[in-house]
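User: My collaborator sent over this chain with a note saying "see what the structure looks like." That's all I know about it. Can you take a look?
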Amino acid sequence: MTATQPDQAAAPPPAWLAELEQRATHWSGDLTVDPAAREAAATDAGNLDHRRPAAVFRAGTAEAVAELLRHTGARGIPVAVRGAGHCLSGHALTDGVVLTLVGGLGRIGEVDTEGVIQVGAAAMLADLDAAAFAAGYRPAAGLPDYHGLTVGGVLAVGGISAWWREGTLADRVRRLRVVTGRGEILLASAAEHRDLFEAALAGLGAVGVITDAWLELTPAQPRVQLDLLDYAAAATAFAAMDCLMDNEAADEVYLWVQRPGTGGRPGATFQVHAYQHTDRHETQPLPVEPEPEHRLTQLVTYPERSRMITEMFDSFRTSLSWDDTTKLWDDVLLSGQHAEHYLTRRVAAFTPADWATEIPQFVLAFPHRRSAFTRPAFAVPAGDSDRIVLVDTLRDRGLPGADPSWTATVRGSRRGAHEQARADGGVAYPIWGCWDGVWPHAVRLGEHWRDFAETVARYNPHLQLNQGTGLPAAIRAELGR
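Assistant: Without extra context I'll predict from the sequence alone. Here is the result:
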């Protein structure tokens, strides 16, 4: 609990709440001002920011979402859309109304003849993946390894997997149903309302609320060969990943830095994960250069591969203090030539105390093809190389401190990570609170910024949605509102 909570608890209800409660009795959604429900929506996974909403609205249909937005927009009542609450920088926090999607907006349809599936935005990635596999498919873009996320929440930020040939989950969307900030329910695609389509995908929920998405699937293989390749240095691990991709030797490739002491090595171990999706019943040697110091190879089923990271984090939640500690998860996209140096410095900055925490620290690197990222609202670093790398650093900072100086220190640490990443030519993956530092939205989106801002203002003229992302304020400044 932070020092700001008692003041918020004592604050009187806002003047607009009584009218909202009265109007909501005629809507198809459910509005609650229950203190427990409001408190449950007051903190995200970072446990650094805390804002208690005045009310929580649960909507099971697109029309219920529209009813809320038509009322709140005209009155300037802030609304934040909350999926699984997994963001780390206050995206879905507000002192207005938190909107959650439930019921029918979590449905998963059948796979059509083109290998496309309609999914409600409230559907969990785990359920999407299971439904697709049951029909013989998998999401074409892959999925983020942690599946305790909603489809809508992932599409709002992009969604990156270990499938190195792919961009984001948002790059493999055929169509959306969006409730705009004006309260209109529109279908959007490359052929209809294309400006809305592009602004909604990886647009941090500024233009409206995604309620349904039509996602591209591809046939799934039944098994996955996992090769875990250990290297003593980042340089050799990055060279191995380059080799695997250049030779098309693996479908999924990423680097997971293991804490010192792993395998008896005094320093960190740079472990490359290479996954081949296959119908084979036996493993076969994986050619890779440089040769690793150690390798572990095993064959698992597709569902086993798909669940492994989710089950690991779920175990943290049940056996450790995962839900209570403050976490800084710094995600930055860098050109291939800069990513190795950035990651090396990040690892070197970890102290023995950092590595020794009960909850593991994570340093990860996911290489991708630049050409696979096609959504204008998703920013990638400048450069000529087609290889870009997402570097993730998760640092656990323990239980939140009540002293404001503790919070200031943690925020300063996050700001320092921003500055280092941008100095290396990186661009933030926007689950960070990056826009109040060295990556204001105009800088992050570059040449796409003005068009994006104008599109958002066209469909959401009241700019009341997801103020925690910083986008409404930035768009007002850009357009002189």
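A starting point for your reply to your collaborator: The first helix runs from residue 5 to 10.
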